[in-house]
UniProtKB/TrEMBL annotation:
Organism for this UniProt entry: Bradyrhizobium forestalis
Residue span of region Disordered: 41-103
Protein name: Autotransporter domain-containing protein
Compositional bias segments (type: Pro residues): 51-90
InterPro entries referenced in this protein's UniProt entry, alphabetically: Autotransporte_beta_dom_sf
Length: 389
């Protein structure tokens, strides 16, 4: 009986122990499964192996319907269109090259005026209005010139003034060489009117041929450019003069006059000389420069003692109706035609003569201009030997 009772007791206890053991095992299963799942997920993300546990599926959430976007209104400022001109790939300076043609026009105007000033020396600009027949040989510097001139009385009232010279000169970028100048004029002096009387001149100055060199300078983005080119030129002038002279005393003569001139200058065509750097070269066509002048002036001649003669003369000159004959074709600019405005300047002259013996006179003389460019300030001086007969 006791044995049976103990057996029953043991069976109960065993059943209770088994139940507790099963309960504990069931409680430990979820705890062990969670680290394993975490381990598997961690290895899957690190090792790139697929997760053996099935991934949960998600039902797509309903997306909202798109809101219509209004079309953009056109901007009041138009977008810039691409420039049809490509950016410059070479040096700049075409405008400066075109402007340099105006400098050539100034040089050629100065050339006309200088040629005329030198020609008036041959017409006795530094001598008195009325005097005996004479001939003078001279040479000058400033502009080199050498020649002869004189006067011859044809009648009691009419005289011939004439001269010829070889000259060369330069001023403001140009240079003239091998230039013969000839001049002649007729003077009508109303000697029968007494010591105070009118007089009239008509004459011409001719330079049929001369060598000319002109310099054209301009600036570029790579530096300055200066080109000197050679060509041929010629100068022609005609004039008329009306004046009044008075013999104040046997030692003094004064005169006032007005002159009208017409000048022409013919220059042969040429192209820029070859230089190392000249990106905007030019070619100049054959052309004729011209201008008209009016001069109002006066002079005074005085004898000091019996051996020293002096003369001073001067006047204001105004140009008008000027025209430049330059027609230039310039790279980057096309055809360029400069204009020539009216100019005004003062001309002066003087002579100091020494009577070394009867009829023989040594003269020192000077002539020039005073004024703005393109005429500018110039002076031409020299010495001469004059013989009265």
């Amino acid at each position: 009986m006791r044995a049976v009772t103990m057996a029953r007791f043991d069976v109960r206890h065993l059943s209770l122990a088994a139940a507790l053991t099963a309960t504990a095992a069931l409680a430990l299963v979820p705890l062990n499964a969670r680290p394993a799942a975490a381990q598997a997920s961690e290895c899957g993300s690190e090792c790139g192996e697929p997760n053996p546990s099935p991934s949960p599926t998600y039902s797509p959430s309903p997306s909202p319907s798109p809101t219509p976007t209004p079309s953009p209104s056109p901007s009041p400022y138009p977008s810039p269109s691409p420039s049809p001109y490509p950016p410059p790939s070479g040096p700049t300076g075409a405008d400066s090259s075109g402007n340099s043609i105006g400098g050539l026009a100034n040089q050629r105007f100065n050339q006309m005026i200088t040629n005329r000033v030198l020609g008036t020396v041959l017409l006795g600009v530094n001598e008195q209005i009325n005097c005996s027949d004479c001939i003078s040989a001279f040479g000058s510097a400033g502009s080199f010139s050498a020649g002869i001139h004189g006067r011859k009385e044809l009648t009691n009232n009419l005289s011939l003034l004439a001269g010829i010279a070889y000259t060369q000169y330069n001023e403001g970028g140009y240079k003239i060489t091998s230039a013969p100048i000839g001049a002649f004029a007729l003077r009508y002096d109303f000697t029968d009117w007494g010591s105070s009387r009118p007089f009239f001149d008509v004459g011409t100055i001719l330079t049929p041929w001369e060598k000319a060199r002109y310099t054209r300078s301009y600036s570029t983005s790579l530096g300055p450019v200066s080109v000197t080119s050679s060509t041929n030129a010629s100068n022609y002038a005609v004039y008329g003069r009306a004046g009044w002279m008075s013999r104040l005393s046997p030692r003094d003569e004064v005169a006032a006059s007005i002159e009208v001139w017409q000048l022409w200058q013919r220059v042969s065509g040429y192209t820029d000389s070859a230089v190392a750097f000249n990106p905007f070269d030019a070619s100049i066509a054959t052309g004729t420069d011209r201008t008209s002048l009016v001069k109002i002036g006066g002079q005074w001649t005085h004898l000091f003692g019996s051996n020293i003669e002096t003369n001073i003369n001067g006047g204001w000159v105004q140009s008008f109706a000027g025209h430049s004959g330059i027609v230039a074709t310039v790279t980057g600019n096309g055809v360029v035609v400069p204009t020539m405005g009216n100019q005004g300047w003062f001309e002066y002259g003087g002579r100091l003569g020494f009577r070394v013996q009867k009829g023989w006179i040594v003269d020192l003389f000077a002539n020039g201009t005073l004024g703005p460019q393109p005429v500018g300030n110039t002076i031409h001086g020299g010495v001469g030997l004059r013989i009265n007969y």
